[in-house]
Amino acid sequence: MTRNLTLIKSLAVAGVAGLLLSGCGGGGDNPPAGNTDGGEDSSTGGSTAGSSFSVMESWEGCEALDDIQPIQDYMAVSDLGSSGLVTSKIGAGLDGEAFTCGAMADIAPLEKDGREFPGNATITVGGVPWNSEEEATENFQSRVTQLLDSIETDGTERTNVKEGELEGDWDESYLYTGQDTTSWYINAIGRKGDLVVYTFLNYTEDPGVMFDAEPTYPFTHEEIIPWVANDYMSQTLTDLLAKKESGL
């Protein structure tokens, strides 16, 4: 199957700022990766009947991922900017293996001297379906390796780094969190059977805290990390599998 993992190196480490705006708005016109003739041989690009890829290969990212509304609600997103939600199908976005939904969002602004000072968040959620558990396992491992390589080589010093696994019904998973001088990072990747799911999130410090005022974020760093890694990721997996069962 010819599908290219092109997004994770920059996206998971530095956020999607320019990447989201440059390539995957609106889903594009490119066809999904692989053939659509229903063939059984994944080595030639065909889909295996009943596999996650055979069901999800034409899914639109934001439709499948419910417009990442739970994250918008949890973070108190106040504005999605001129680009709004950025959506892609498999083969049409910067991560050629995934259907994705993301945004560059303003969150929970501080009102001061008649002006608003919002926090900023870069959010990307993706589903990466495959024809077999073996393909998904290889892809999961590749994504974790590329994430760690990027963190090691990008030259940004991070503190409060934590690594671990996700809670929930995953066959394997990886969680990386940390912060630099301006932002927090949450990178969560999980695999269940032949489906890989990820959430990459980075957000700036609470503007209330930065201005020595009351916090404006409706969450703390200690609260959002387990919420994304465990609650949100597990619910997203459950929802995607239910949609797969129903054919979306």
Structure notes:
The chain has 248 residues and is of the alpha+beta class. The protein has one domain. The protein has helices at 8-14, 17-23, 52-56, 61-64, 69-75, 133-153, 207-210, 221-246; strands at residues 77-79, 86-88, 99-112, 115-129, 159-164, 172-179, 183-192, 195-204. Strands 1, 2, 3, 4, 5, 6, 7 and 8 form an 8-stranded antiparallel β-sheet that branches. α1 crosses α6. Residues 30-53 have a biased composition (Low complexity).
Brief descriptors of the model:
248 residues; alpha+beta; 8-stranded antiparallel β-sheet; Lipoprotein
Q: Which overall shape is indicated by the principal axes computed on the Cα atoms?
A: globular
If you compute it from the alpha carbons, what radius of gyration comes out, rounded to the nearest whole angstrom?
Answer: 18 Å
> How many DSSP helices?
8
% residues in beta strands: 25-35%
Secondary structure class reads alpha+beta
Q: What is the total tally of β strands?
A: 8
Distance between the termini: 23 Å
Number of domains: 1
Mean pLDDT: 84
Report low-confidence residues grouped into runs of 5 or more. 12-44
| Biggest sheet character | 8 strands, antiparallel
Query: What does the oligomeric state look like here?
Result: single chain
Helicity, as a percent range:
25-40%
H and E string = HHHHHEEEEHEEEEHH
